[in-house]
Write a structure and sequence with these properties.
The chain is an alpha/beta fold. Helix content is about 35%, strand content about 25%. The chain contains 5 helices and 7 strands. The strands form 2 sheets. The chain has a 5-stranded mixed beta sheet with strand order 5-4-1-6-7, sandwiched between helices. A hairpin with a 4-residue loop joins strand 4 and strand 5. Helix 1 packs antiparallel against helix 2 and helix 4 packs parallel to helix 5. The two termini are about 20 Å apart.
Length: about 190
């Protein structure tokens, strides 16, 4: 499962590259998909084993405040033959999400301009839920893609959330988009 943080801060222009973070999200997911298809090689003395794993992929997007959740791809088999079609579908759906966020921002400026950022607890909970909907052999991990602009979390809630992931043997990796911390543009940092 790839879980995208599409909070309003993702619509910001990166101070160092001049690129909108939303465009970076798209490229990041594409790179992750191609990297997942790389064959795994195990070399030994006089032999090489090559593995081609079966990768099931779901991609979800979550916005914290106001809360919204989108499923972009659900439990699709990622193969070299299917990747281009899946990425076309992903791009179209991500574009629709971007449009929906822009419409919500226009309708409720007060919520978007309040300066409040959401923590990532709902995003992590929903990614874990989507992971449970995957086939049993596909339930190993989820990747959280974020710009790192979040509010300070309730530590007890995060502790409970991380312990539940641990109990259920769910691995979580985080990937930060953007060029990193800039004190004049960061509202928070993961």
């Amino acid at each position: 499962v790839v879980s995208l943080d599409v909070s309003p801060s993702v619509g910001v222009i990166d101070a160092l590259t001049g690129e909108i973070h939303f465009a970076t999200l798209e490229r990041t997911v594409e790179r992750v998909c191609f990297a997942l298809l790389d064959e795994l090689k195990l070399a030994g003395k006089g032999f090489t084993l090559t593995f081609h794993p079966r990768i099931y992929l779901s991609i979800v997007a979550q916005m914290g405040l106001p809360v919204a959740f989108w499923t972009l791809l659900q439990c699709v088999l990622l193969t070299p033959r299917s990747i281009e079609q899946l990425l076309i579908k992903f791009r179209k759906r991500l574009s629709a999400v971007e449009h929906a966020i822009a419409q919500r921002a226009a309708q409720s400026r007060a919520q978007f301009n309040s300066g409040r950022a959401a923590d990532l607890s709902a995003t992590i909970q929903n990614a874990a839920f989507v992971l449970k909907l995957m086939p049993p052999e596909a339930r190993s991990l989820f990747l959280l893609v974020t710009d790192g602009v979040v509010s300070l979390p309730d530590t007890a809630a995060y502790d409970n959330l991380l312990m539940s992931l641990n109990r259920e043997l769910i691995a979580c990796s985080a990937l930060q988009i953007g060029s990193g911390y800039s004190p004049h543009v960061a509202l928070g940092y993961v």
